[in-house]
Amino acid sequence: MNKKFWMVLLLAGFFALPGFGQIFDDEPVGAEARSKIQAARVAYITERLGFTPAESEQFWALHNEFEAERDKIRSKYKPSRPIESMSDQEAEAFINRRFEMEQEILNLKRDYFQRFRQAVSPRKVALFNKADKEFRLEILKRVQERRSNNRPNRNFRN
Predict the structure, then answer these.
(1) Where are the alpha helices (DSSP H) in 50-150?
(2) What is the pTM of this model?
(3) Are residues 63 and 37 in the same domain?
């Protein structure tokens, strides 16, 4: 049963990936498309790291908590105005606040690493970033392929 479940999930994820290239136009990505990409990301990483169903459930619940906390920290330090319009003093204060933000995020990562390693092995935690990067590169490659296929030949002159 478990093996069949993961095979179906894996196949659904891989069959869905080509469709993601179609959602990347010059328009912003909508909530539905974003959720499809997230589902494919979860399926890809879960399969790539070989999570058991229990590990997957625990890991992704913790990961979603981590991302929410990280986003709260980032929003807390968001600049009030564009950097280009800041004075040197404001830019320096912004940079110092940025260091504070990065330290908070580093502390959060350390805290969540301890929590992640209770859900999955440290090796799988370490491999997560690699698998996530591979997924993002695959999506980027598909977007670039789609854009290059939709562009008229600009070198052709009448």
Answers:
(1) 53-76, 88-119, 122-150
(2) 0.70
(3) no
Co-location of 26 and 46 in the same domain: yes
Please write the tens of the pLDDT for every residue from 103-123.
999 999 999 999 999 999 999
Which range marks the domain in which residue 1 is found?
1-51+122-158
What does the block give as tokens for 33?
């498309």
Q: Which residues fall within 8 angstroms of residue 3, CB to CB, at 6 or more apart? A: none
Do 115 and 83 lie in a common domain?
yes
**7-53, pLDDT tens digit by residue?**
444 444 444 444 544 444 445 568 888 899 999 999 999 999 999 99
If phi over 0 gives left and psi between -120 and 50 gives alpha, with beta otherwise, what is residue 93? alpha
Q: Do residues 40 and 86 both lie within one domain?
A: no
- Number of structural domains (the chain) is 2
